[in-house]
Amino acid sequence: MGRAVTQPTPRQADLLPAARRTxxxxxxxxxxxVAPAVLLVAVVLxxxxxxxxxxxxxxxxxxxxxxxxGLANYREMFADPEFLTSIRNTLFWVVGTIALPVGLGxxxxxxxxxxxxxxxxxxxxxIPYAVSGVAVGVIWSFVLQTNGxxxxxxxxxxxxxxxxxxLLDDPLNxxxxxxxxxxxxxxxNALLFGIGLQSIPKEPIEAARVDGASxxxxxxxxxxxxxxxxxxxxxxxxxVGSLKTFDVIWGMTKGGPGRVSxxxxxxxxxxxFVNNAYGLGAAVALFLTVVTVLASVLYLRRQLADxxxx
Length: 310
Known about the structure:
This protein has helices at residues 10-55, 72-79, 81-112, 118-126, 133-144, 149-157, 172-198, 202-210, 215-226, 228-243, 247-252, 264-274, 278-309; strands spanning 58-59, 67-68. It has two domains: 18-68, no CATH class; 81-309, MetI-like fold (Orthogonal Bundle), CATH 1.10.3720.10. The protein has a two-stranded antiparallel sheet. It has 13 helices and two strands, in the order H-E-E-H-H-H-H-H-H-H-H-H-H-H-H. By secondary structure, it is mainly α. The mean pLDDT is 85. Helix content is 74%, strand content 1%.
């Protein structure tokens, strides 16, 4: 037997067009709210990106019309040994920024968690974050310059290292600049991890203590897994920030001596605004953008995949 087809009643038939009109009005209203934000993103982000991509395939000095050169800027970029040094230094910054500011921030937050007046303990580490990156570079360049404050202090104390040229020798200058960035950024990471520790439920921690877990074992088996979502955000921000590092380096060495301490961000700036090679600078900018996006996407996909498997 065939199934009987239920026809809408006259009342239901009258309501269908009204429901469609209501749904269409809802979508139109939603689009009206979203459109300004989409337009702003397109104007501020996408149009400059398209223009930069176009300029990267041209020879352009900021005056006149760009001349199409195809992949010449990219070939010149990868053939330049100084560019390869910039890539190496950028990798140093990525690894150093994850290991030091993030690691030190986690250590400060863990040690101060549960202490009375823990905020006062973290405050001295947080104050440098209020200082601009260029100011941090100026402060630390005074400390680390040849025969500067650090060298003189080591010499007076009879400790080794007073003869080192902190900002002149490669890759030592990159490492000490990562240390300066750590001084600035560890406090805010400690603040974020402190907030994460406060949000962890106490019951599982107390149950683990009853079972005999304590110290590093308690942290590794209970606290650290519960901090994983926050750690993903903090490390992701650190990766993106390290790839774009500019201000601290500019304030301390300006990429020198020569170009031995440049990163990709500094190379992009110098090629564009110092050498007036806008096409080559745009090629470096596009390469840096692709690297930043790929690093962020791969890291987040890895972290999200790990979180689903738990």
